# Entry
Amino acid sequence: MADEWKKKVIQEKLGGKNDWTEEERAELCRQLDQDLDKHIDEMGKTKYEGGWSEDNWKEQMADHPLFAPYVQEEGVTMGEEAPMNPLSEGLAQIKFDPDHNTPEEVAQSYKEEGVLQFKYKKYRLAVLNFSEGLKQKCSDNELNAQLHNNRAAAQWHFGNYRSAIKDCEKAIELKPDYLKAALRAVDCATKLKSWDEVFTWCDLGLKLDPTDQKLKTSRLTAVKEKKLLERNLRKKAQEEKKKLMEEQNLLNIISSRGVKLGSTVVKGSSSLTLADLEPSHPAAQGSRVHINENGELVWPVMLLYPEYHESDIIQKFTESDCIQDHLEDIFGNDAPCAPWDAEQKYRVESLKVFFEYKAKDQLCKIDLNQTLQQVLTDPRYCVLGGTPGFIVLVDGSKFTKDFMSKYNVCT
Amino acid sequence: MTKADQINELIQFLAPEGRRDTKSAACMTAAQLTGTPEGLSLLSSRPDALVAIMRLIRDSEIYTGKDAMRALVNISAEESGAAALLAVKDVDVVSEMVKCIEDPNYPHADFACGILANLSKPKHLCQQVFDRISEGPIKLEGLVYILCQINYNKKGAKLHLLAPVITNFSQLADGRRQIMVKDEFVFQRLITFMDYKESKGRRMSVIATIHNCCFEKEYHPWLMGEDVDLVPRLLLPLAGPDTFSEEDNESLPIDLQFLPDDKEREPDPEVRKLLLEALMQLCITRASREIMRSQNIYLILREHHKWEEDQHCVMLNEDVVNLLLRTEEEIGTDDLSAVEVSSDMAAKFIAQDMKYLSGVSSDMSSLTEEPTKGEK
# Structure
């Protein structure tokens, strides 16, 4: 860019000539001086209007070569990059060009620039500047330690605590008595809730300054927080274990009852899992089979009404309840007719209940005075999807006859 | 050639600027000498020999340095040898050992810890060792800092034997005070090793140190306060797998809540004894007893009592429980250490304890009248 600017001047003043003689050079200087004098003479004659106003000073300042950032913020792609003012680039060159400066000077310049950006809360730019400074790999360990520490400070503002701690480690490595870096690491480790790290950093810091009140407080807090964290982990582990045991107990009871469980995946009866018991019907979810205070199994039960493609879910069907009891609740004399029951014929006294024995395409009739447990232990019965299901039909209706004709009915 | 001549010759060969092979052989001879009582007393009686050995501990030949340290371990193990080493003028054995321990790259740092532990073991030498350390750059606080950093030594030394050094210092009033400087975190760092599984020696020494510190009554409020919170730490090694209801669990200090099923109790009865004696010490004031009651630690002691098989530990457990279960009106005095126990009564109590320990039943309620059980 600076080259382009040079070309522009050459173009304007010398018609694009590159090989200058000493006389020509002197002539150009004289001309430029004249221009300047003329400019100064004319000043005052016209009112000065180019100044920054209260409204636009921020933008003006941001564009001014003296104040414009040297390093572009990340995330701006090359194409969109605001063209850097050539003067600004020239200044940057004076400060940062490794050909004109020692690595220490360049690193120092980047540090100052980073600190400036940090003050303006431009933390990303600050990080970039400090990183550039570190890239110089200068021999001044004090300076490098400061760059690491400062970068840690900037990282902190992004919440990059892990990166910040790494910078603190490096800073302390380079400058073992760097209390500031230790303090920052304590803050970062606290944010990460990494309490063992907090101890280590506090102890390191307290070695440097045994009177630092903040370190003492942080250490005490970390001890308490760690205890709490560990307690909570233990509690959680215990709860999980308890849950697991309860679930195992549930599976044991189910298999001791002789209830067969089926799932969509075919497998042997020995590998009962809880997944087999999770109700697949949305209305039954959350009411998975469980054990009540009397040690009885409580199942979610589904009643199917194929005639109307309707169903009911009884969420808590205790195994000692009779089928009849629940039918009374739904279709008894005191209960209103189901909204889908257009002909009002689903009344308890006229209902028949069956279950499907899939292996033999059989429809098995259930004695309504049987308990759920008795039905489920029928060797032909298999609980699918963790939810026992029964087919409810109206005795003697046309639909019932048609429906039953598709099966081998056994009564 | 007389024995003295032989020693003179040995000392010549031990000179640091001497030939490598003869130096190495001489140092090995010196180390072997310390293996016999005669050799030990011979070397102990010759300060110049001790100086010569001490000058070889950092010899460039690693085995020579190791032999020198082994010789010093053996010499310091005998009280007379320890005294002789401390009396050497030209080289300060204490500061030399501290330097060895402080150096993370010194390969024989474990020997150095052992030598310091040996030197500080006899009570009359302990103060001297402690004073010399207190004058040096690394004081007790610094030693504990080193002790508490796992893998401090990069050459594989474990530094476990630094723990008994601290225990020895905890027998001194000055030592206890330095361990319990309120915001230096010496005590708090030690506490974390109370259930250190990797080394029984370190664990036992740390607990013995804490046990000794519990004899400082004026520190009890601090020890039991939230900055240290010692009571749950003393009980944790006595606690087994959790058997409590959720409600009981919540009533305990959080360190003791919801312990896992595989929680193991401290396996060594000697260590459990120290823990229970420390608890007993904390029980001597009313304020402390009230704190312990509010922490409901009786639950832990109850379960420990069911499990405990060592008679002495059972007795100590019952002593603490008796104090915690009784009301303050029944105990009748705020500070049990202020109770005057006449010598004939004390003798009677000790006899009762002995009887109890030998398995003969005795009246438990009278046992607890003795408040100062547990000797330093």
Notes: Confidence is low (pLDDT under 50) at residues 74-81 of chain A. The interface with chain B takes residues 203, 206-207, 210, 216, 219-220, 223-224, 227-228, 231, 234-235, 237-238, 241 of chain A (CB under 8 Å). DSSP finds 14 helices and nine strands in chain A. The first strand of chain A starts at residue 261 and ends at 262.
